[in-house]
Amino acid sequence: MKIKNICCIGAGYVGGPTMSVLAQKNPDIKITVVDINQDRINSWNDENLNDLPIYEPGLKEIVNEARDRNLFFHTDVEKAIDEADMIFISVNTPTKTYGKGKGMAADLKYVELCARQIAKVAKSDKIVVEKSTLPVRTAQAIKNILDNTGSGVKFQILSNPEFLAEGTAIQDLLHPDRVLIGGEESPEGKEAIDALVEIYATWIPKEKILTTNVWSSELSKLVANAFLAQRVSSINAISELCEVTGADVNEVSRAIGMDSRIGPKFLKSSVGFGGSCFQKDILNLVYIAKTYGLHEVADYWEQVIIMNDHQKRRFADNIVSTLYNTVSGKKITFLGWAFKKDTNDTRESAAIYVADALMNEQAEITVYDPKVSEERIYEDLDYLGTRSPEENRKLLKVVKEPYEACNESHAIAILTEWDEFKEYDWQKIYDSVIKPAFIFDGRKLLNPKEIKEIGFEYYAIGS
Ligand code: NAD
Ligand code: UGA
C-alpha cells in the first residue's frame, strides 16, 4: 500500500517538526497538519519564518522548503481527515487535573476526541497512527471507538511514539537512534506497518526501523523517558553527596560514564529536569503500575520524581540560606527560564519552581532568557496559582538585556544552560552587582576558577 495523503492532528512541538521532516523527505506525499488553535496555525503559515510557533534549530529551513509544496497547515480538521489515507494523532496528553487519577494518569480526552472525529468523518479505510505518548493499551480504546461506527470503514491502529528531544528535534528526526512502529500481527496489521516503514525508509536505514506489537511500542515510550529521567535523578542525588564530601559531580560523571556499560550521556547534574514529558510520563507509568496492583514497581519509579522535586527545592533553599537567611526585598537575577537550552519551551521548567519558592520569601526576581517571552513567564507563574497575577508582576520582572538584568543584583542564579551565558563579560557584571557578589550555577556552566578570580562567591550544583 502506498500512502499518498497524510493528515496530522496537532501542530505542536511534535506534530510540526515531525511532519515538516516527513514532508521534506517524501515530496510525493501530501501532508496536512491541522490544529484547533487558529493562532498556532497562523504562525505556522507566517511568511516570516522567524515567527514560527516553536523555535528549533534547522526547522525554518525545512518548513521553507516543504511548505505549500506538499506541507500544509490549516484548521479544517474534518476535511484533512476525510482526504487522508494515514492519520497521525499528535495531540497533547497532559497529566489529569481532575477526577480519578488526578495528578498522575494521562488525560486522554484530546486523543479520544480525535478518535471520535475520525470515526465521524471517515468514508474510506484509514491507518491511524498514535504519535502522542500514551498509556499502554490505549490503542484498544481507540480501536473500540473506531470499530463501532457502523459505517463499514476499516481502521488499522499503529503506535509510532516520538523520541525527539526539544532543541535538537530536527537532528533527532533526521538521524534517529531508532524509529519504533507497533502494529497488529494480522496480515492487515503487517500491511499497515509496512506502509509506515516505507515512509521512514526514504531517509532512515531499515535496520533502525524497529517493528513490535502495539503494547510493546506504547510501553517502550514511557519506559525510555523513565530511564532517561532516572539517570538525571540518580546523578542529581549524587550531586548532593558531592557537595558535602568534597567530590565533584562532573568528575564523578566522567569517571562512571567512561564505563561503556554506563555510558557518558544524560549524566549532567542540574537544578532538576523539566520539560513537558519526563514528569508526566513517569507519573503515568506509576499510575499504570498502581492500577495493576504493582505497588513496589510504582514506588520505585515515583522516587525519580521525588528526587527531582528535592533538587529544585534545595537549590532555592541554598540561595536563601547563603544570602544570610533572607531574600526579602533582594534582587535576584535569573539567567534562563526555558527548561533546557535552544528551546523557547518552559513547560515544567525548574526555573518556575525555584522562582516560586523565592517569591514566597519575598525576593524580587528579574529574569532574562534569550528565547522565552515575558508573557510566557507570567503565564507559567499564574498557572501555579500561588499568588495573584498582580502579585506575580510586582515581584518578578522580565528584561530583554542580560547586563541590565544583572545590574545591582544581590545574586545571580543560572537556571538554563544557554551557551551565550558563558560568553558574557563577567567582570563587567561583577562591577555592577551588590557585594558580596553571589552566583548560584544550577547548570555548572561557568568556569569556577575564572569566576572566583573575578571576586564572585560561586556555588555550583554538585561541588
Ligand atoms: P503540544 O501541546 O505542543 O501540541 C498539541 C497540539 O494539539 C496543540 O496545538 C493543540 O491545540 C492540538 N490539539 C489538541 N486537541 C486537538 C483536536 N481535537 N484537534 C486538533 N488539534 C488538537 O504537545 P506536544 O509537545 O507536541 O506533544 C504531543 C504529544 O507528543 C504528547 O503526547 C507528548 O507526550 C508527546 N511527545 C512530546 C515530545 C516533546 O518534545 N514535546 C516528544 C515526544 C513525544
Ligand atoms: C525528552 C527525551 O530526551 C526525548 O527522547 C523524548 O522524546 C521527550 O523527552 C518527550 O517524550 O517529550 P526533552 O524533554 O525535550 O526530551 O529534553 P531532554 O534533553 O531529555 O531534557 C529533559 C530535561 O532533563 C531538561 O530539563 C534537561 O536540562 C534535563 N537534563 C538532561 C539534565 O538535567 N541532565 C542531563 O544529563 C540531561
From TrEMBL:
EC number(s) reported in the record: 1.1.1.22
Keywords: NAD, Oxidoreductase
Binding-site residues, NAD(+): 10-15, 35, 40, 91-95, 132-133, 166, 277-280, 347
Pfam families, sorted: UDPG_MGDP_dh, UDPG_MGDP_dh_C, UDPG_MGDP_dh_N
The keyword Oxidoreductase belongs to this UniProt entry's keyword annotation: yes
Every UDP-glucose/GDP-mannose dehydrogenase C-terminal domain range: 333-448
The protein's role, per its UniProt record: Catalyzes the conversion of UDP-glucose into UDP-glucuronate, one of the precursors of teichuronic acid.
Protein name stated in the entry: UDP-glucose 6-dehydrogenase
Species assigned in the record: Brumimicrobium salinarum
Lineage of the organism: Bacteria, Pseudomonadati, Bacteroidota, Flavobacteriia, Flavobacteriales
